[in-house]
Amino acid sequence: MAHEVTVMGRDGCHLCEVAEAEVARICGELGVAWKAEDVDTDPEWRAEYGDRVPVILVDGAEHGYWRVEEDRLRRALQP
């Protein structure tokens, strides 16, 4: 099964930039697709994730927030 990772963040958020860089590196090494979404572009996203950004989603389900736990993310992305 092919996984997809989404980083829910916002412009100007330093932790979001760090998370995006870490996710890009990890997903690049594993050949997993990823994308970043701005929570401020959708009122539902802002209500759901706004206080906890960055939030990491794996296959649409919340995996973690504020920091990327590299070992845990790698395990979640194993085939």
TrEMBL record:
Pfam family, one: Glrx-like
InterPro entries in the record: Glutaredoxin-like, Thioredoxin-like_sf
Gene3D superfamilies with a match to the protein in the record: Glutaredoxin (3.40.30.10)
Name under which the protein is recorded: Thioredoxin family protein
Organism field: Amycolatopsis bullii
